[in-house]
TrEMBL record:
Similarity-based family: Belongs to the succinate dehydrogenase/fumarate reductase iron-sulfur protein family.
Cofactor or coenzyme needed: [3Fe-4S] cluster; [2Fe-2S] cluster; [4Fe-4S] cluster
MF-aspect GO terms: 2 iron, 2 sulfur cluster binding; 3 iron, 4 sulfur cluster binding; 4 iron, 4 sulfur cluster binding; electron transfer activity; metal ion binding; succinate dehydrogenase (quinone) activity
GN (gene name): sdhB
Protein name: succinate dehydrogenase
One Pfam family cited in the UniProt record for this chain: Fer4_8
One of the GO biological process terms: respiratory electron transport chain
Occurrences of domain 4Fe-4S ferredoxin-type (ranges): 146-174
Keyword Iron-sulfur: yes
Organism: Cytobacillus dafuensis (Bacillus dafuensis)
UniProt-listed InterPro entries: 2Fe-2S_ferredoxin-like_sf, 4Fe4S_Fe-S-bd, 4Fe4S_Fe_S_CS, Beta-grasp_dom_sf, Helical_ferredxn, SDH/FRD_Iron-Sulfur, Succ_DH/fum_Rdtase_Fe-S, Succ_DH/fum_Rdtase_N
PROSITE patterns tied to this protein: 4FE4S_FER_1, 4FE4S_FER_2
Enzyme Commission (EC) number: 1.3.5.1
Keywords: 2Fe-2S, 3Fe-4S, 4Fe-4S, Iron, Iron-sulfur, Metal-binding, Oxidoreductase, Tricarboxylic acid cycle
Amino acid sequence: MSDKKSVRFIITRQDNPDSAPYQEEFEIAYRPNMNVISALMEIRRNPVNAKGEKTTPVAWDMNCLEEVCGACSMIINGKPRQSCSALVDQLEQPIRLDAMRTFPVVRDLQVDRSRMFDSLKKVKAWIPIDGTYDLGPGPRMPEPKRQWAYELSKCMTCGVCLEACPNVNSKTNFMGPAVFNQVRLFNAHPTGEMNKAERLNAFMEDGGMTGCGNSQNCVQSCPKGIPITTSIAAVNRAATLQSFKNFFGSDNV
């Protein structure tokens, strides 16, 4: 790779949500330690395709540039991943960039991830503490639980696991693997546990736990190495127990 003087990209572009996608090739000068984001920045600075024709700058999302925000997710050489951590030196050329197709395309490599965020709202993937007054230090989480909960908290809602999951598509309402993980995380929190039943009941509705086909693509594709399949199993067990509590109308089941 270091002997090559240029880097070639084939980018699937789309002018607006309703237009047809098309491919456009670009060739830029090679620089050591270049990642996909820096290459896209170079294309944006000088939007001329491989034919030498002036074109519109490529659109994509980005923010932190250090694999924390999850905004720059796209399909790189057929694999959904973060473009900020995708090094050109480690990619086969020509480098093919596509938008994630699980989500509606806004333009070029930009997608609308509202589907995932709406699902997180359904299961209340947060700890609802009302008021601005001091509530005190709150209950402490045991260290063993804190350690595995921290691994779950690494989720950056990048959408890669949804893109990799065959059960998340336009024909289903399945909320996706990331939601399992967040339900488990907030139900494990000493304060968040007060809404545990509410989260599990929401997860037993259409689009929830029954939509998982156990393909395990999610855990293989997660850029943070989160044990998503473990969370899926844990939430399924908790939801089954919650269904018995609902049936018998008791918290002592």
